[in-house]
Protein backbone atom coordinates (compact mmCIF):
# COMPACT_ATOMS: atom_id res chain seq x y z
CA UNK A 1 0.00 0.00 0.00
CA UNK A 2 1.41 3.42 -0.99
CA UNK A 3 1.67 6.47 1.23
CA UNK A 4 -0.91 8.14 -0.98
CA UNK A 5 -3.40 5.40 -0.10
CA UNK A 6 -2.61 5.61 3.62
CA UNK A 7 -2.47 9.39 4.06
CA UNK A 8 -5.59 11.47 3.54
CA UNK A 9 -6.49 15.14 4.06
CA UNK A 10 -7.83 15.93 7.51
CA UNK A 11 -11.51 16.63 8.01
CA UNK A 12 -10.62 20.13 9.19
CA UNK A 13 -8.73 20.79 5.96
CA UNK A 14 -11.59 19.50 3.81
CA UNK A 15 -14.03 21.75 5.64
CA UNK A 16 -11.86 24.78 4.86
CA UNK A 17 -11.58 23.75 1.20
CA UNK A 18 -15.37 23.58 0.95
CA UNK A 19 -15.80 27.19 2.06
CA UNK A 20 -16.71 29.13 -1.07
CA UNK A 21 -14.05 31.47 -2.41
CA UNK A 22 -15.06 34.94 -3.49
CA UNK A 23 -13.24 37.25 -5.88
CA UNK A 24 -11.79 40.18 -3.96
CA UNK A 25 -11.33 43.75 -5.14
CA UNK A 26 -7.76 43.79 -3.86
CA UNK A 27 -5.26 40.90 -3.94
CA UNK A 28 -4.52 38.97 -0.74
CA UNK A 29 -1.12 38.41 0.78
CA UNK A 30 -0.31 34.84 -0.25
CA UNK A 31 2.51 32.34 0.16
CA UNK A 32 3.92 30.57 -2.88
CA UNK A 33 5.98 27.45 -2.13
CA UNK A 34 8.27 26.25 -4.91
CA UNK A 35 9.42 22.73 -5.58
CA UNK A 36 12.62 22.63 -7.64
CA UNK A 37 13.63 19.51 -9.57
CA UNK A 38 11.02 18.54 -12.16
CA UNK A 39 8.99 21.67 -11.44
CA UNK A 40 11.41 24.48 -12.29
CA UNK A 41 14.61 22.58 -13.06
CA UNK A 42 15.73 19.53 -15.01
CA UNK A 43 19.02 18.25 -13.63
CA UNK A 44 21.61 16.46 -15.72
CA UNK A 45 22.50 12.98 -14.49
CA UNK A 46 25.34 13.32 -12.02
CA UNK A 47 24.15 16.71 -10.78
CA UNK A 48 26.87 18.79 -12.41
CA UNK A 49 24.50 21.02 -14.32
CA UNK A 50 20.83 21.87 -14.73
CA UNK A 51 18.41 23.39 -17.19
CA UNK A 52 15.75 25.86 -16.03
CA UNK A 53 12.28 25.94 -17.59
CA UNK A 54 11.53 28.42 -20.39
CA UNK A 55 10.35 31.88 -19.28
CA UNK A 56 11.92 31.49 -15.83
CA UNK A 57 13.12 35.11 -15.65
CA UNK A 58 9.64 36.40 -16.40
CA UNK A 59 8.15 33.99 -13.87
CA UNK A 60 10.58 34.91 -11.09
CA UNK A 61 10.08 38.65 -11.64
CA UNK A 62 6.32 38.16 -11.30
CA UNK A 63 6.19 35.91 -8.26
CA UNK A 64 8.74 37.81 -6.19
CA UNK A 65 6.83 41.04 -6.87
CA UNK A 66 3.46 39.64 -5.81
CA UNK A 67 3.97 36.75 -3.36
CA UNK A 68 5.87 35.71 -0.29
CA UNK A 69 8.05 32.96 -1.79
CA UNK A 70 9.79 29.97 -0.21
CA UNK A 71 11.46 26.79 -1.48
CA UNK A 72 10.64 23.28 -0.32
CA UNK A 73 12.56 20.48 -2.00
CA UNK A 74 13.22 16.86 -1.08
CA UNK A 75 16.74 17.17 -2.52
CA UNK A 76 19.79 17.28 -0.27
CA UNK A 77 21.12 20.67 0.90
CA UNK A 78 24.05 20.89 -1.53
CA UNK A 79 21.72 20.19 -4.47
CA UNK A 80 19.16 22.73 -3.26
CA UNK A 81 21.88 25.36 -2.88
CA UNK A 82 22.96 24.77 -6.47
CA UNK A 83 19.42 24.84 -7.87
CA UNK A 84 18.64 28.07 -6.01
CA UNK A 85 21.27 29.82 -8.10
CA UNK A 86 18.63 30.10 -10.81
CA UNK A 87 16.84 32.79 -8.75
CA UNK A 88 19.72 35.20 -9.24
CA UNK A 89 19.15 38.48 -7.37
CA UNK A 90 15.78 37.19 -6.17
CA UNK A 91 17.37 34.48 -4.01
CA UNK A 92 17.81 36.82 -1.06
CA UNK A 93 14.04 37.43 -1.04
CA UNK A 94 13.16 33.81 -0.26
CA UNK A 95 11.32 33.62 3.07
CA UNK A 96 12.54 30.07 3.74
CA UNK A 97 14.63 27.43 2.01
CA UNK A 98 13.69 23.93 3.10
CA UNK A 99 15.53 20.86 1.85
CA UNK A 100 15.64 17.16 2.67
CA UNK A 101 16.49 17.94 6.29
CA UNK A 102 12.99 19.44 6.69
CA UNK A 103 11.03 16.18 6.37
CA UNK A 104 11.85 14.60 9.74
CA UNK A 105 13.48 11.56 8.12
CA UNK A 106 15.58 9.05 10.01
CA UNK A 107 19.25 8.63 9.07
CA UNK A 108 18.38 5.56 7.02
CA UNK A 109 15.43 7.24 5.29
CA UNK A 110 17.45 10.36 4.53
CA UNK A 111 20.06 8.37 2.61
CA UNK A 112 17.57 6.24 0.69
CA UNK A 113 15.08 7.29 -1.97
CA UNK A 114 12.37 7.44 0.66
CA UNK A 115 8.96 8.76 -0.35
CA UNK A 116 8.43 12.19 1.19
CA UNK A 117 5.25 14.10 1.98
CA UNK A 118 4.96 17.88 2.05
CA UNK A 119 2.64 18.59 4.95
CA UNK A 120 1.80 22.28 4.66
CA UNK A 121 0.79 22.43 8.31
CA UNK A 122 4.52 22.43 9.10
CA UNK A 123 4.90 25.59 7.03
CA UNK A 124 1.88 27.20 8.69
CA UNK A 125 3.39 26.54 12.12
CA UNK A 126 6.50 28.43 11.02
CA UNK A 127 4.78 31.21 9.04
CA UNK A 128 1.68 31.82 11.10
CA UNK A 129 0.11 34.44 8.82
CA UNK A 130 -0.52 31.76 6.20
CA UNK A 131 -3.02 28.89 6.08
CA UNK A 132 -5.03 26.80 3.63
CA UNK A 133 -6.87 29.85 2.29
CA UNK A 134 -3.76 31.76 1.17
CA UNK A 135 -1.03 29.20 0.43
CA UNK A 136 -0.09 27.81 -2.99
CA UNK A 137 2.37 24.98 -3.59
CA UNK A 138 3.90 24.56 -7.05
CA UNK A 139 4.95 20.91 -7.39
CA UNK A 140 4.90 18.40 -10.23
CA UNK A 141 4.48 15.47 -7.81
CA UNK A 142 0.97 14.48 -6.76
CA UNK A 143 2.18 11.79 -4.35
CA UNK A 144 4.01 14.34 -2.17
CA UNK A 145 1.01 16.64 -1.80
CA UNK A 146 -1.79 14.30 -0.70
CA UNK A 147 -2.44 15.98 2.65
CA UNK A 148 -3.44 19.36 1.17
CA UNK A 149 -4.30 18.48 -2.45
CA UNK A 150 -6.30 21.63 -3.16
CA UNK A 151 -3.45 24.01 -2.41
CA UNK A 152 -1.30 22.70 -5.24
CA UNK A 153 -0.63 23.71 -8.83
CA UNK A 154 0.68 20.67 -10.69
CA UNK A 155 2.74 21.62 -13.76
CA UNK A 156 3.85 18.94 -16.14
CA UNK A 157 7.24 17.53 -15.16
CA UNK A 158 10.05 19.40 -16.89
CA UNK A 159 12.54 17.03 -18.53
CA UNK A 160 14.89 18.87 -20.87
CA UNK A 161 15.68 15.75 -22.90
CA UNK A 162 12.10 14.53 -23.31
CA UNK A 163 10.73 13.96 -26.79
CA UNK A 164 7.77 16.26 -26.10
CA UNK A 165 9.96 19.20 -25.11
CA UNK A 166 12.49 18.61 -27.88
CA UNK A 167 9.70 18.48 -30.48
CA UNK A 168 7.29 21.16 -29.25
CA UNK A 169 8.90 23.30 -26.55
CA UNK A 170 6.71 24.60 -23.74
CA UNK A 171 5.49 27.70 -21.90
CA UNK A 172 4.28 26.19 -18.64
CA UNK A 173 5.50 29.08 -16.50
CA UNK A 174 3.65 31.66 -18.61
CA UNK A 175 0.45 29.69 -18.15
CA UNK A 176 1.07 29.46 -14.41
CA UNK A 177 1.52 33.24 -14.22
CA UNK A 178 -1.93 33.65 -15.78
CA UNK A 179 -3.39 31.22 -13.24
CA UNK A 180 -1.68 33.00 -10.33
CA UNK A 181 -3.13 36.30 -11.50
CA UNK A 182 -6.56 34.84 -10.78
CA UNK A 183 -5.58 33.17 -7.50
CA UNK A 184 -4.24 36.42 -6.06
CA UNK A 185 -7.78 37.76 -5.86
CA UNK A 186 -9.36 34.67 -4.29
CA UNK A 187 -10.44 34.67 -0.65
CA UNK A 188 -9.86 30.90 -0.44
CA UNK A 189 -7.34 29.43 -2.87
CA UNK A 190 -8.03 25.86 -1.68
CA UNK A 191 -11.66 26.15 -2.71
CA UNK A 192 -10.81 27.80 -6.01
CA UNK A 193 -8.18 25.20 -6.94
CA UNK A 194 -10.54 22.38 -5.94
CA UNK A 195 -13.17 23.69 -8.36
CA UNK A 196 -10.84 25.11 -11.04
CA UNK A 197 -7.57 23.13 -11.07
CA UNK A 198 -4.68 24.28 -13.24
CA UNK A 199 -4.62 22.67 -16.68
CA UNK A 200 -1.72 22.86 -19.11
CA UNK A 201 -2.12 23.71 -22.77
CA UNK A 202 0.54 21.63 -24.49
CA UNK A 203 0.58 23.11 -27.99
CA UNK A 204 0.52 26.74 -26.92
CA UNK A 205 1.38 29.52 -29.35
CA UNK A 206 4.03 30.84 -26.95
CA UNK A 207 5.91 27.54 -26.63
CA UNK A 208 9.66 28.08 -26.43
CA UNK A 209 12.78 25.92 -26.55
CA UNK A 210 14.94 28.52 -24.77
CA UNK A 211 16.23 27.54 -21.34
CA UNK A 212 18.94 28.67 -18.96
CA UNK A 213 21.80 26.21 -18.43
CA UNK A 214 23.73 26.32 -15.16
CA UNK A 215 26.99 24.46 -14.53
CA UNK A 216 28.26 24.05 -10.96
CA UNK A 217 31.76 25.19 -11.85
CA UNK A 218 30.52 28.43 -13.43
CA UNK A 219 28.95 31.39 -11.62
CA UNK A 220 26.29 32.39 -14.14
CA UNK A 221 23.89 30.49 -16.36
CA UNK A 222 23.69 30.93 -20.10
CA UNK A 223 20.86 30.58 -22.57
CA UNK A 224 20.48 27.42 -24.65
CA UNK A 225 17.94 27.13 -27.46
CA UNK A 226 16.94 23.49 -27.81
CA UNK A 227 15.40 24.22 -31.17
CA UNK A 228 18.95 24.30 -32.52
CA UNK A 229 21.01 22.27 -30.05
CA UNK A 230 21.70 18.63 -30.85
CA UNK A 231 22.80 16.04 -28.26
CA UNK A 232 26.22 15.85 -29.91
CA UNK A 233 26.92 19.49 -29.04
CA UNK A 234 30.10 19.34 -26.95
CA UNK A 235 29.13 22.40 -24.89
CA UNK A 236 25.87 20.96 -23.58
CA UNK A 237 25.83 17.77 -21.56
CA UNK A 238 22.53 15.92 -21.74
From TrEMBL:
Annotated keywords: Mitochondrion, Protein transport, Transit peptide, Translocation, Transport
A GO biological-process term: protein transport
Membrane topology: Single-pass membrane protein
The FCP1 homology domain, residue ranges: 25-183
Keyword match Transmembrane: no
Cell compartment(s), UniProt: Mitochondrion inner membrane
The protein's role, per its UniProt record: Essential component of the TIM23 complex, a complex that mediates the translocation of transit peptide-containing proteins across the mitochondrial inner membrane.
Family: Belongs to the TIM50 family.
Subunit structure: Component of the TIM23 complex.
Record-given protein name: Mitochondrial import inner membrane translocase subunit TIM50
Organism: Rhizopus azygosporus (Rhizopus microsporus var. azygosporus)
